[in-house]
Amino acid sequence: MTALIETLIDIVGASHVLQGNDLQAYEEDWRQRQRGKALCVVRPGSTQEVARVVKACAAARVAIVPQGGNTGLVAGSIPDESGTQVLMSLRRMTAVRGLDPVNQTITVEAGCVLQSLQEAAEQAGFLFPLSLGAEGSCTIGGNLATNAGGTQVLRYGNARELCLGLEVVTPQGDLWDGLAGLRKDNTGYDLRDLFVGSEGTLGVITAATLKLYPKPVAQLTAWAALASLEDANRLLGLAQRQLGASLTGFEVMNRQALQLVDKHFPHLRVPMWQENDWCVLLELSDNESEIHARGLLESLLEGALQDEVVADAIVAESLKQAHDLWHIRESITLAQTQEGHNVKHDISIPVSGIPAFVRAADAALRAALPGIRFVNFGHLGDGNLHYNIQAPEPSDASAFVRAHEDQISAIVYDMVSKHQGSISAEHGVGELKRHKLAEHKSPVALQLMRSIKSAIDPLNTMNPGRLLVAPN
Ligand code: FAD
Ligand code: 2HG
Ligand code: ZN
């Protein structure tokens, strides 16, 4: 091991090979659910350095765990507890390599923070639409490796749909340059799509070419209160019919989610949560004018109020008010963290089935564990709900999660399967859900996934033990 560390120091320099006890930020997951121990943290500064590090680790049969912003919610970016894995942080690789305004693409290195990428696009008059609560610290490499979703998927798609090309270092340390920003390319298996969503198990993403969009002329945000998820689906249908592709976001939040934001961040002044079971945040992007956009949104909401689909609604009067409303939505995860450990389920169901799913899952869980709190929110337009469970009040949240997580998740995931859903809509599988994946994915799908893994990474050195568990 000492020889490997000396080789790594030769490649990236002594100041970029970190060892010792002060590696908590790299070794602990964002939710503080798990902590591993790395042999060392290596911080390459270029694709060539990544390739040399991977080659050296492969020669020594040492596993690599790639890490971007370490904001993942499934503990996929931290090492195991063995102290033998090299944690590779991509955070030094932040360059914007180029922007092609005619092709409407931008090429960036993997460690570029999502917000910096959005800003680089904006400075050139474009929109890079991927948007999520962790955008100030997650990296585009991590976004692609998890196929991240967020709040604009309804209109622009998830990270996969925004990606036109990748540069990847393979587990053998070879470089695949697939960066050309082609919108059409039918030359066999789609390698790009294989690496997107592979959670560091097939190689290290070092750069990407991504789609840009013209910046909308106007963006408006509305907040509406509703009595039920059925009404939320009705409003979604009306909005899709009346606004078409201008509808760029449609988020739901239940009362308990907003109550937690109100409790932990009272200065955010959450509207309408006390009197209503559900609230919706809607975003409209328009290429004509703000007056045009406001007219569309107001007529949608007036109709919905008249038909009693919504109980109350406001349209943000200024950019600041819109930003404040989005901030409330993006603060739910943090409010849940403040409240204590919780059980997360990032599920997807066909949109039409969401109300029935929530009714059935709520009833089954209430019967099993009276007093638990349902913190539900998410991207209703994508059929993606964060069906999260918080311990009853008052109780020791960590002890509750330790004692009941498996029981709760088994009930929820069985219900998801009954509703033809997925147990991971956007966060990925990582360490936390790999056993659940093995239970809920078909044997044929799992076998195909294992074949791909062993063909590309026969030594199993890329993020081993994540995503897939070995067959029994
Ligand atoms: P990390 O956490 O560092 O890594 C995630 C996975 O990708 C790991 O398996 C890691 O090994 C792998 N990986 C990282 N970089 C590379 C690379 N260069 N090459 C190969 N593999 C790599 N997710 C959503 O989808 N939608 C949301 O709305 C959303 N909101 C969030 C809000 C908050 C407050 C937080 C904390 C998280 C949220 N997330 C969300 C989850 C998380 O932000 C995303 O999964 C994000 O894409 C992870 O990026 P990262 O750079 O932090 O990756
Ligand atoms: C979001 O949509 C994220 O805010 C986080 O995906 C979800 O905390 C969660 O469960
Ligand atoms: Zn989400």
TrEMBL record:
Signal peptide: none
Gene3D superfamilies from the UniProt entry: 3.30.465.10, 3.30.70.2190, 3.30.70.2740, Uridine Diphospho-n-acetylenolpyruvylglucosamine Reductase, domain 2 (3.30.43.10), Vanillyl-alcohol Oxidase, Chain A, domain 4 (1.10.45.10)
Protein's UniProt keywords contain Acetylation: no
Cofactor(s) it depends on: FAD
PROSITE patterns: FAD_PCMH
UniProt record, GO biological process: respiratory electron transport chain
SUPFAM superfamilies on file: FAD-binding/transporter-associated domain-like, FAD-linked oxidases, C-terminal domain
Keyword vocabulary terms for this entry: FAD, Flavoprotein
Source taxon at top rank: Bacteria
The FAD-binding PCMH-type domain, residue ranges: 34-215
The keyword 4Fe-4S is assigned to this record: no
Molecular function via GO: catalytic activity; FAD binding
Similarity field: Belongs to the FAD-binding oxidoreductase/transferase type 4 family.
Protein name in UniProt: Hydroxyacid dehydrogenase
Biological source species: Malikia granosa
